[in-house]
């Protein structure tokens, strides 16, 4: 499968995008049931990081068929691949919720790694009202064209089965799977959240004013979130307390498995 995938319009049902699930299959299923998700016509798109931390990583991986339930690659899947490829990379994955993977036998590890290596790194979905881009972490220079170029840069090595550490793959993975450029701008420049300059009480108070501050954002603050080459972009990877829209960006990583939290699941093709 291509590292960059274009998805045609869903003429039969609804398309949903969900933020980082991290192994919480029961929570996902509960919310899909509440939405009346129809497996015969609706489609679900995951923003990567379907594994680690929660109890159902294997079941989440098996759920992804890239036909009705899709996923792009996240940094946690990348850590899983790297840990399988090199003992030197095991500790990073293990320390970030990946211990379940190293309890599996080598054959099962290989099956799961082979599966996620077929996942695209980015998607462009025809919603019927425009094109929605999906990428896990960041959009370098607020340019979807750069997302496409980075996937093209890594495509040959990725298709050949090269390791995560291969230079072309590593160069593309850093901005697309790991970086936090846009979310840092959101926290610092729009919301005024700066851990280094605020007391804990000040930070928590500002965090509670999240929605109000977003509503007050001016055009200059919104400028980095206007993404060229695409109509809208959905991102995971970095925590937001609620699904957050600014400019062309939709940040959906809102679930940490704590009481009262929900996954951000949004319909992208409703009229």
From TrEMBL:
Pfam families: Metallophos. One of its GO terms (cellular component) is cytoplasm. Residues 17-140 form the Calcineurin-like phosphoesterase domain. One of its GO terms (molecular function) is phosphatase activity. SUPFAM superfamilies: Metallo-dependent phosphatases. PANTHER family: METALLOPHOSPHOESTERASE (PTHR42850). This is Phosphodiesterase.
């Amino acid at each position: 499968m291509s590292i960059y995938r274009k998805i045609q319009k869903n003429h039969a049902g609804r398309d949903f995008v969900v933020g980082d699930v991290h192994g919480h299959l029961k929570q996902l299923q509960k919310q899909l049931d509440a939405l009346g998700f129809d497996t015969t016509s609706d489609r679900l798109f995951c923003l990567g990081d379907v594994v680690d931390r929660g109890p159902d990583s294997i079941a989440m991986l098996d759920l992804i068929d890239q036909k009705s339930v899709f996923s792009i690659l996240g940094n946690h899947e990348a850590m899983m691949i790297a840990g399988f490829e090199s003992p030197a990379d095991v500790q990073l994955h293990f320390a970030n919720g990946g211990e379940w993977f190293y309890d599996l036998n080598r054959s099962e590890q290989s099956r799961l790694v082979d599966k996620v290596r077929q996942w695209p790194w980015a998607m462009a979905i025809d919603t019927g009202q425009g094109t929605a881009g999906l990428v896990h972490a960041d959009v370098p220079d607020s340019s979807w064209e750069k997302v496409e170029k980075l996937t093209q840069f890594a495509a040959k090595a990725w298709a050949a089965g090269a390791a995560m550490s291969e230079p072309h793959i590593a160069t593309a993975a850093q901005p697309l799977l790991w970086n936090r450029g846009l979310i840092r701008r959101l926290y610092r420049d729009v919301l005024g959240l700066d851990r280094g300059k605020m007391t804990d009480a000040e930070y928590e108070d500002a965090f509670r004013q999240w929605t109000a501050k977003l509503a007050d954002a001016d055009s200059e603050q919104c400028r980095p979130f206007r993404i060229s080459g695409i109509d809208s972009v959905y991102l995971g990877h970095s925590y937001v307390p609620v699904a957050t829209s600014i400019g062309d960006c939709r940040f959906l990583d809102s679930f940490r498995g704590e009481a009262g939290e929900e996954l951000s699941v949004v319909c992208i093709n409703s009229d």
